[in-house]
Amino acid sequence: MTLLAACLGLWAAVSPAAWTQTGATPPPAAVALTTAPMVSLGLPLAFGEGPWYLGEVLFFSGGKLAIGGYAWSDHVRSKPGMLATRADILGDVDSLKGLETIESVTPSLYEIPGSRTPPEYAAIAVSTAQVRLVFDVTPKAEAAAAKSKTPILAPPAPVSGLVLTPTAYRGTGRFSTPGLGLDFNGMYVIGRLYGKNSFANSLHHTNYIDRVGLWLLGADGKMQLQSETAVRPAFAAGVQGSFLFRDSGQPSVSSTANPTVTVNASEKSTRILTDAYVVASKKFGPVRASAGLMLGDMGDAVAQMSEFLTPDALTFLANQPGQTVRSNTVPFVSLFGLPRKSQPLGLEIMKFNGAALNPMLINFKIGYFLHFNFDVGLLKFQGGYDLLGLLQFRFNEFPR
Fold first, then answer.
1. Do 251 and 191 form a contact (C-beta atoms < 8 A)?
2. Which band of pLDDT confidence, cut at 50, 70 and 90, is reported for residue 391?
3. Which of 66, 75, 159, 217 would bridge 169 by S-S if both were Cys, CB 3.0 to 4.6 A apart?
């Protein structure tokens, strides 16, 4: 008898007579109210004008809860804990049907047994009980067939920066209007792959596979002040802050004049580095070009990337006692492209003005070729160069 009563109640709710009695207009055929999947969802409700207080929003497919419901929920405005009208729900149906993987969507409403509409909504909602909104989704057959063959793709790479330098863009390329942007960035200098120097007092003029162990973890906040057009570039100003630390001390330097004496270049250390910057960016076909200037102590980080740039090395190897590799002004340029949305390709050049040995850092973003976040940096200075292996991750927090 319980099953019979439920069926009669469902028939009464969806029959033409029910629509006439409630004064509501039946939904169009594309979203006609039909029987929901055969599970206990509550007492069916007529699909009138509303509004209803939503206690739960569910997605069904093939008679069971849809695995992809968490992704579909991003495309609907109806959420638990809010009021929804008939127009709101039909708008959500249109949004879902706009997805390439969905063939049709049927909404239905059910009272949640034992629940009550919150007092602040009781005078507005048409139901005294909270309502369960169910979207019965039918995926496209070809999309379902291809689902098992389609690899899981990584999210698109942010265009708001490369390795250590920012661009005037924000987000992942879909946000071209002025506004705020926030990225979190992490870089790890694994070590030196190969290096060469011409210092007369250096014990080895060729070095390879040496550990560096340097971390730079920070945030990049910007305001895009001017959007890009066909002629003018995008323009942005921002600030960066990074926490620098080492998981090992820098390699030691030795002198051929007294090879028994070894000088420890640096112990484990931590430091907060900051800078303010301005940058302009312009897209030329598939390539985004940027040029800018950093002002702050972020340029001091380069001294930690090679033992040849430490004060001890300047004294014993480069014959420049009392000098330091520090820079408060770092001009930079970059070229950046996305052959694939999640695999960037590009390079950035940073010049550390005022620093001893006139260092320059060129980072190559080569994830496109390696399918991995492994990058290569070329650290050039007067008297030699080091080829560095890097790991770098940029996470776009806002806008997403």
1. no
2. very high
3. 159
The answer to whether 336 touches 161, Cβ cutoff 8 Å, is no
Peptide bond into 80 cis (omega under 30): no
Count CA atoms closer than 13 A to 261's CA, side-chain side: 9
pLDDT-based confidence at residue 23 (cuts at 50, 70, 90): very low
Which tokens go with 307? 């033992």
d(CA 351, CA 328): 11
E-only strand ranges, 155-246: 179-197, 206-226, 234-246
Closest to 364 in 3D by CA, of 377, 373, 351, 374: 377
User: What is the predicted pLDDT for the residue at 108?
Assistant: 92
The pTM is what?
0.60
Average pLDDT over residues 188-214: 91
* 3-state secondary structure string across 67-119: CCHHHHHHHCCCCCCCEECHHHHHHHHHHHHCCCCEEEEEEEEEECCCCCCCH
CB of 397 closer than 8 Å to CB of 183: yes
Boundaries of every domain in the chain: 2-147, 179-398
* Cα gap 313→1, rounded to integer Å: 91
Q: Among residues 178, 191, 219, which one has the least CA distance to residue 394?
A: 219
CATH of domain 2-147: 3.10.20.310
In angstroms, how far is the first alpha carbon of the chain from the final one?
A: 52
pLDDT value of position 145: 55
